[in-house]
Design goal:
With 487 residues, the protein is α/β, with parallel strands linked by helices. It contains 14 helices and 18 strands.
């Protein structure tokens, strides 16, 4: 959006039409006005009909008219002009004046009313023409810009000289969630934080300075009526003005998608660095072990070394599979569905089920979790495997609802010491000699992809409890809990 700098006049001259039945007075006024206001281009018309014809043929920013003319007086001419050009400034400049005519002119909506006179009156007329024509041209340009911006669909606002919203478009209301009546007359603090408002003031001060740029673009968080924070770019410019500041106009551009993409790229880079670290460090041990076992097997022919070689290869294959899973599970969940938690947990338990171990469901059969089914299943499987592998048989695993919303998976195993709980989700961390250390990392990645927070605490049975909560309760069913035990 390009707006004239507030301290600069437009390069195009102000077009004025002067209508009077006295051609000599027209020539005199034309010469004076063009001398007083060099950026003014004056056309003259002798009489009302000639003036109406000129209006049909040309575009003007202001009309100056005598009052007492043959055919139509000045107010009758004003009525005809306003029928076709309702916003065009119209100044009555007459030698036949009276309080009655002045009152009638003001009631009719003239832009200005002046008595003909000497140089001082001409200067007053020139000053009024300049201001009225400049404002009219700015309004025309603004309407053109508005047409373009409406087509683009960007949220637009205008803040007046009193720092109050004077205009907002439909896209602005859609973005913020407010009704128009709630916005007009309010300050920018309605949708911007205190720091955001201060930043906007700083940008505007730079724009209106003599050496400042025409526009400024800056990052700002928009707070909607519902309290949602929408990251935006604010493109701001000052409204054209002369001696007095008239306000500013701004265009907001929602950059939520850009921000999300940027954050995802950062996460991908972090995962890439993590994978490089894992490949270079964690895989080095089984590779070296495999080389040693292969060398011993070749030189001795001992079957035990061949078995060790096969075991190291299996371990490397398992680690590679887990790495691929880490890459997939870190991606943001695109689509979710209500998943009944109890039947899913029971299905996941089957591979780990034995006579000594038990699964206890402390939740209603109809409780659902909003999730991507396949990833939720992987999360539950990894937690069940973690409990069975780290706990002495028999082990009991409990799945239930948290009091503040969400669900938990706990066991009666050895638990995790408080000082170690922050590290359990780090890749490669394991207390098992043959473990990959990726199981709980995958759990954390799946939770992050769903937007869930994960907590680690001690269970009621002295083991470990993993809790999963969201900003909103993910359960769609009542809070009633039913406990069942299955061996």
């Amino acid at each position: 959006m390009s707006i004239d700098h507030p301290q600069e006049a437009s390069s195009a001259p102000v077009k004025v039409l002067h209508i009077d039945d006295n051609s000599g007075f027209l020539d005199l006024t034309k010469a004076f006005l063009e001398s007083e206001v060099p950026a003014t281009d004056i056309d003259t018309a002798t009489g009302p009909e000639a003036g109406l014809e000129a209006l049909e043929e040309n575009t003007y920013h202001c009309v100056v008219s005598d009052y007492d003319m043959p055919g139509h007086n000045g107010l009758e001419l004003l009525k005809r002009v306003r029928e076709e050009y309702p916003d065009l400034p119209f100044i009555l400049y007459t030698g036949k004046g009276s309080e009655e005519i002045a009152a009638e002119a003001i009631n009719a909506g003239v832009t200005g009313y002046f008595q003909k006179g000497g140089p001082d009156q001409h200067r007053r007329l020139a000053n009024r023409i300049e201001h009225a024509a400049t404002e009219h041209r700015a309004r025309i340009e603004s309407e053109r810009y508005s047409t373009v911006l409406r087509a683009l669909g960007y949220p637009i606002y205008v803040v007046n000289e009193n720092a109050e919203f004077e205009y907002v478009n439909g896209a602005f209301l859609e973005l913020t969630g407010y009704e128009r009546e709630e916005v007009i007359g309010s300050g920018p603090g309605l949708i911007k934080s205190e720091s955001g408002t201060e930043r906007a003031d700083e940008m505007l001060a730079g724009i209106v300075s003599e050496t400042g740029p025409n526009t400024q673009q800056f990052r700002v968080d928009i707070r909607t009526k519902d309290g949602e924070i929408v990251p935006c770019h604010d493109h701001m410019a000052a409204l054209p003005f002369g001696e007095e500041f008239r306000g500013s106009v701004g265009i907001l551009r929602d950059i939520s998608a850009q921000k999300q993409t940027r954050e995802e790229l950062i996460r991908q880079n972090e995962r890439l660095e993590e994978f490089v670290s894992i490949v270079s460090h964690d895989l080095r041990a089984p590779i070296n072990n495999a080389k040693t076992a292969a060398s011993l097997a070749e030189s001795t022919g001992d079957a035990a070394h061949f078995e060790q070689l096969a075991a190291e290869h299996d371990r490397m294959e398992e680690m590679i599979d887990e790495l691929l899973t880490l890459a997939r599970e870190g991606e943001t969940v695109a689509e979710t569905e209500p998943v009944r938690l109890a039947p899913l947990v029971e299905d996941c338990w089957e591979p780990f089920c034995c006579a000594e171990d038990a699964i206890r469901l402390a939740l209603d059969e109809d409780v659902t979790v909003e999730a991507e089914r396949s990833r939720l299943r992987r999360l539950v499987e990894n937690l069940l495997r973690n409990s069975v592998e780290h706990g002495a048989s028999p082990v009991t695993v409990t799945v239930g609802e948290l009091d503040d919303g969400g669900f938990y998976v706990s066991d009666d195993g050895p638990g995790i010491a408080p000082e170690d709980r922050d590290d359990v989700f780090e890749p490669g961390v394991t207390s098992e000699e043959d473990g990959t250390g990726f199981g709980l990392t995958i759990v954390k990645r799946i939770a992050d992809a769903h937007g869930w927070d994960v907590t680690v605490s001690e269970s009621d049975d002295g083991g470990v409890r993993f809790g999963f909560v969201t900003a909103e309760d993910p359960f769609a069913a009542p809070e009633r809990a039913v406990s069942t035990e299955r061996a």
